[in-house]
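Re-run with default settings, no changes from the original entry. Doing this only to confirm the output is reproducible before filing.
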Amino acid sequence: MTCSRGDEEIACDESGSDGENLLAGNTDVFAHGSVRLPTDVAAECFRELRHRIRSPAEEYKANHLLREKHRAVLEWLLAPGGPVHGHAHVHLIDKAFFVVDRTVGLLLDGGDGHRALGAVTLYRAGPHAFGDEEWQDFLTAAHQLLRVRTDHGPSAPVDAFFRVVDGLRRAAGRTTVSAVLDRLAAARPAAEDYRARIAATGPPLVPLLDPLLPAVVATVRHWSAGGPGPVRLVHDRQNMLTPQRMAWVAKSVWPAGAGRVEWRLVEARLDVRVQSADILAGIARKVASDELNGCGDARLTALLRPYIDTESVWGDAPSWARMRGNAANTALRVAG
């Protein structure tokens, strides 16, 4: 879909995409960056980056700025008064928490509040209650249950998941996660129905384990600022972004059909605004991953803070508090 006024477009790209392979991929964080910059401003930003970094690379990426020798350039880009400050946004997804959230959302009835409470409780207390090895077994079984593709019949991932759940129930005793495990154990019919639907009709329009579309929803929601739109997106080419799925995005943001999304796909190297979004997403993914793993850089985290979507899908309380700059602010967005 063609957008009429390019300078009003929101340019988007992602970092950390492994499709459905959320647990064994190369990254533990997914980031979706978006910028609202006129093309000439973005072009001037890249001219300045090239002047400061002096790399012969045809296309600049986040790893150019993340090198220690270019630390000053990275801080210049993100700092107040920098070229993207106040004109950019990044939605973060903690991939392991995303798996837990999606599993709880599929299997447990109730409103978003019940779903969020169950997912957060399980994610935060599970490793301590079960031990690291058993917790990884649970994540792996949940991941296989939700994956569209499986090497076995539809019942195999269901059987494997509930074997793990039953084992954890026996081992956990009465802990903070017991009630969640009990509810999961009783939800086998929902799991069987999910796998049967995939076997009968193929993958759902929006695969449960792909973080891109929920991130695009969050991006549109941010830039629409509660208004009806239209929100005009220009996005790096992605096979997931089909007309049917973009219609789903619009319906997710405006359930009553009051707004719309206009969009087009481009090659990132041909649009400096999309390249800016790509660099922001790559930086944010690395900074957030470092915080998640307890080795964050306080200065970079502080510089990234104004860009972070407060509705990011994040389950780890300490790293979220550091990224948001408020230890009391641990409310988390349920993956839509």
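The longest helix spans residues 272-292. The CA atoms of residues 31 and 285 lie 5 Å apart.
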